[in-house]
Amino acid sequence: MTMKVLSLVGAMAALGALTTAPVAAETAPARAQATAMKESPFACDTLALDPVTRKRHFDVLGPELVAKRLSVRELANGYEFTFASDPATFRDVAEWVGGEKACCPFFNFSLSVSAEHGPLKLQITGRPGTKAFMQSDGADWVRPILASK
Fold first, then answer.
1. Strand partners for 73
2. How many domains, the chain?
3. d(C-alpha 51, C-alpha 118), whole Å
4. Does one domain contain both 98 and 120?
5. Do residue 87 and residue 113 come from a single domain?
6. Is residue 149 one of the residues assigned to a domain?
7. Please, are residues 98 and 62 in contact by the beta-carbon 8 Å criterion?
8. How far apart are CA 82 and CA 96, in angstroms?
């Protein structure tokens, strides 16, 4: 019985070694190509949002958040926006990210809040071309903040 178990384990290990290594080596480029083929185009799919959500996203939340930006920082592959970290702003940013994720799936979003009631930071980044898309389609968002008079 022990011999059969060892035989079975040895056979499984050998089978795994035979099938795993060559497949992994052969499929890595194919996997990379499949990932590249799945990338969505740089276009805002407004129909990804139902009419009520779309109106709130583009006509209410977007303009409100643009007005609430405390700073804008250009990154190598996108932008970082700073907001006050009050609960209402946090909820609005989180809701806006949810809508934006639906209509612009090529964005990466990172939301952080610093300790001791520090600012809320939203980073929007992505693959090459993301920043150019943001500059074109989100010009209000990336416009520098002018000092108050």
1. 80
2. 2
3. 35
4. yes
5. yes
6. no
7. no
8. 14
CB-CB contact of 131 with 77 (8 Å): yes
What are 36-48's pLDDT values in tens digits?
Answer: 558 877 778 888 8
Count of alpha carbons within 13 angstroms of residue 126, beta-carbon side? 18
Query: How crowded is the C-beta side of 105, counted as CA atoms within 13 Å?
Result: 9
19-65, pLDDT tens digit by residue?
Answer: 333 434 445 554 555 455 588 777 788 888 899 999 999 999 999 99
CA distance 24 to 115: 43
C-alpha–C-alpha distance, residues 113 and 5, integer Å: 54
Q: Which two tokens stand for residue 28?
A: 């890595």
Query: Is the separation of the CB atoms in 125 and 80 below 8 Å?
Result: no
- Domain range enclosing 14: 1-39
Q: Give the integer Cα–Cα distance in Å for 131 and 138.
A: 10
State the Cα–Cα distance between residues 9 and 15, nearest whole angstrom. Answer: 10
Query: Average of pLDDT values for 127-146?
Result: 91
